[in-house]
Batch of 4 targets.
Target 1
Amino acid sequence: MFEVHGFAAKDATSDLVPYTFSRRDVGASDIHIEILYSGICHSDLHQARNDWGNAPAENFPMVPGHEIVGRVVAVGPNVKKFKVGDLAGVGCMVDSCRECESCKRDLEQYCQVHTSFTYNGTEQDRKTVTQGGYSTAIVVEERFAVKISEKLDLKAVAPLLCAGITTYSPLRHWKVGPGQKVGVIGLGGLGHMGVKFAKAMGAHVTMITTSPSKGDDAKKLGADAVLISTDAEAMQKAASSFDFLLNTVPVSHDINPYTSLLKLDGTMVLVGALTPLDGVIGGSLMLPRRTIAGSAIGGMAETQEMMDFCAEHNIVSDIELVDMASINETYKRLVKNDVRYRFVIDMATMPKG
């Protein structure tokens, strides 16, 4: 075991404070990553405050963070993919059973036995609590880390480990590409990545938003068009015209107006809202034949594919770099959606005492 410095919520009502804890020593198939940057996901805030009711008391103190990038400083004797000095990233999970049908299909996020999430979770022993990336180092089995190209701006890579793969995976799974009309609903941390990926895949991309002021930003990100969802006339004109909708709205909302935008055999995939949605009008799915689906992050092979795609197309997140000491103020800004489009912590600012 070795000591690392981090920031943790001592309980669900507390601000984050400096916290020293231990990481395991490097095992035969492990890599030790010195964390250089850690992205801040809105779910960090929700979990630290137990907004979703999934954070038992025994998981505190909780060190959030599942958008982790850094440099490998040690490797176990059986490691094949990494060497000391490589750039590496860790996302939302650090282990799975590896034996179930989902794991054998490289879909570890859907492990049918137990997914070990990067924080607010447990290791495969179901007892050892996991701690996240708001810390100076992490040790992880090499399967659950991805290689990062030196060509990319490392600090802006961090959100790719959550916001990136969350949007890339459904676009890939539903085979988005040239000749398709794609709508991205909501321009935030997820939505801005959805626009970038869908455009790079060759689709015609429309940003669908309630805020006319976000139109210019959307076009700068690569959107071909903007549709204001509160404009009834514009929504009517766009009815039955989209092949695919990526719905990134993070809160409960009425999806029926968006469902009407889908053409025959069109699909809307939900990646943002974990909470209950308003009732769906069955007839809008039946006539014409439409599908509503959901998607969660991506498996490790697909996450590496995404990272390679980003290197090929020079895609990173739009970020604001913050220091570790400002984390509680940053969370307050996050509540107000005062960010374009992701916060990333410079871990060089971590207090060491």
Target 2
Amino acid sequence: MIMKLYAFCITFMLSLLSCFGQETHIIEPSILEISYHTKYLNSYDDYALRIGKNVSEYFSYHTLRFDSLGSNPETVLAIINEKIKAIQNNNKTTHKVESPNSGDYLYRNLEEGRMTTYTQVWDSHYKITEDIPTPEWIIHEDSTRSVIGFNCTMATTHFRGRDWKVWFSEEIPLPLGPWKLGGLPGLILAAHCDGYLDIIASNIKREQLSPVKFYNFWEKKYKDIDRLSYLKKASDPTIYPKNTTFFPKMELE
């Protein structure tokens, strides 16, 4: 069974390499990078919010590593072996590196007021462009906490079908945060959605930063799609193989 899986993985990855090649480009220098740790049930992931003067990007470190190494002929076999070990240990470990929408790359262009999400539904790749969303926040001045040494204030909102509770710090006066959360007078350093997801900043880096980049290691061809059409398509069970395991999506509406 393992040998068959190994052969399948090699064939699959090499077929990708024959069709795609690395392509990425720098958008602008970074001024700040925030690392976030996310927890969903018994799974976790680690994300970066990389911020430039005009453009910010949000992505999973683990997805970036897989895309980078998996698209390189010299390192693709190491990634295949990692995936096989993960499958073998699936029932032996209590924590897995997974999270909802972990394959997405999100870009916010503050100058243009636009957000672009690069995502996929099974084997199709899509580009969603929208105005940068601004949730309707209620700020709770009397509810505060410290996150990685910064004084934070709580705010709540109902956004895209879910109730969110976040903590933002005016000590970092940027209207940004993890995923699509933002629009407050300070950077969001923690976010919580009951029964779904926890996000908390684990580090802030100000020096020796990687630039804000557009990542497309596989040279995927993204089709334009509006957000609601994407949500409808992504929730259609008929386009996935049988017994596919689904993460509840970040957006429900």
Target 3
Amino acid sequence: MKRFENKICFITGAGSGIGKATALSFSREGGKVVLCDIDEKNALNTKDEVLAQGGEAMVIALDISNGAAVKKAIEQTVATYGRLDCAANIAGVAGPVSKRIHEYPEEFWHQQINVNLTGTWYCMKYQLGQMLKNGGGNIVNLSSAAGLIAQPENAPYAASKHGVVGLTRTAAKEYATDNIRVNAICPTAIETPMIMEGRRKLAHNEDARQAAINFQAMKRMGTPQEIADVILWLCSDRSSFITGIALAADGGAMA
């Protein structure tokens, strides 16, 4: 039997990168996937791939920084499938500039806190409420290595990702006796559109790309599939005694 046979799996950021890899992986393991992304076109492309591999999926265009929209998305999920078993909160944004705190533009601070931290809180708030009705469930939040250590010239991202770790650990304690586990994963440099085309534009800046590669002891960047594999493990019964961790998936960077 597949690990997620007939489980309802809710994924944010499902249109690309880690979110897409996670959605396809849940589907391959028998899960019915709810594909949420602010870019509906990307989410529909992921759905096409899910259907092509014989899976079942629905798409919800979702801005996680809108609490009412998140609430509605969970309601749509339950209206369609009757329950919610697993959630992978992967959607997030990175700032477009590298600046020290006293120079950092206020608008980009608010954007990253609103999406990465408040958006994750909205997702957890409504996911946890539904999982209590289910009688249990599993949540994995995407933090970052920047949620474990400093990231100079990227303060709002680091602050938001540290916040995700705090939310994760607090929720794990609050719901530990409700058959709900909550964990976070903290990757370093992963080959996703956000990092390759984002603040440091690794796809176009060989020096920056090499610096990102050298940060890992393995001297390579990770792949979205490698992170998806860890997310599925944390959502599965194979990690049944684990809750409240912030797991570094980092190629040995933190060692």
Target 4
Amino acid sequence: MAFQSDTSFVPTPPPGEDELPYDDGEPMESQRHRKQMGLLIEVLELLWKDRDDVYVSGNMAIYFSELQAKKNDFRGPDVFVVLDTVRRERKSWVVWQEDGRTPDVVIELLSETTEKVDRTDKMRIYAKLLRVPEYYLFDPFTGVLEAHALDLATMSYVPVAPGASGDVASPRLHLGLGVRRGTYHGIEADWLRWLDAEGHVLPTGEEQARAAEEQARAAEEQARAAEEQARAAEEQARAADERARAAEEQARAAHDEAQLLAARLAEYEQRFGKLPGGGAP
């Protein structure tokens, strides 16, 4: 008698990034919001281009429980960073596929339609469920930046006071965040920028290219100035050589004249005797 294996008790594996929706269906509020998200992500990817243990993304769904996935209740941070992970392409961030890793830093870009959710539901989820250590809020149109740190005792966020310059530190990333006036992709505005330990703005690809171009132009100008200095030095050397040649000719002429006078004197003394006082004729 043949027996058929009963698979009714085999647990169904939870869905992964290939099965779960990865777009929250909510487009960025404005062109400014989209550009700001791209700027923050681009700079970190350039900064860490040689690292494979960090992941940076934005507007991507984060799944932290199967119930949440079944209810289709997911959150997509505008910008988030995960350390100590594997850098690879992902459709969404599924916590149970990432060995329980959750973001270390989340940045939400405020707008009139999202600010309430960013300050309530998302803040609660990031603190109590995902336990994100650092949470930042930035309004691309007002330029107001807020920093929050996770209090492990209460599993809630507490405000972090900015420095004297208005910048805030990201202890997890060993970077800073500050608002700087500038132009990005043709839009002049107060942008939220990543800063290095000295408070210098970390450049975008366009800024790196512009700096390289300026350095090349400066090097070309220095080379041109050095060439002009060399040419001037060569002309000075040529002028000095000509002066030395002229002095040599003058000395030779003076020597020849002195010899001529000495010969005349000797001839005169031979014919008439020495002059009184020994002078020349």
